[in-house]
Amino acid sequence: MLVTTPNPGRHFNDDDVERYSMGSLPEELTAPFEEHLLICETCRNRVRESDDFVHSMKAAVTEMGKPELTVKLATVGPVVAPGGSPLFLLPDLSDLVVAPTDSVELTDELGNSTWRGALPGIHVTSLPIGRYRVRIHAGAGEVLREYSLHIQ
Ligand SMILES: [Zn+2]
Questions:
Q1: What is the set of domains in the chain, with CATH numbers?
Q2: Please, what is the average pLDDT of the chain?
Q3: If you measure from the C-alpha of residue 146 to the centroid of ligand 1, how many angstroms do you get, rounded to a whole number?
């Protein structure tokens, strides 16, 4: 015996799914598409994936579009910088004899290392709001200098 399933209608193509995510699907297609979504899990999942993609693209474009701020880190008091912007963290190295093997490290509040690399500074695309520490390490690991950074 033949089991009939309700006809879910035609799947929409990738282009339409993407346009729907970006809010640029024409109105005459939006209504039938939303009707189709009610009965089609496959397309609902496709929309979800497309939404994620569109969001991450938008976030990437927004971040790329923002100019990088140079944040000079001083040893006195915390330096405040905005979240959601690309930053160049530039520690004040005056009075410090820096060796090529020295490194700079960015840690979060809990002391977890977020970034570690070569001097003179740290490029970050954006940092979540919070308190951070930047440390200059001698080649052997000894902390030569420490800076406090607040992202808000
Ligand atoms: Zn479908």
A1: 14-65 (no CATH), 69-151 (2.60.40.10)
A2: 87
A3: 56
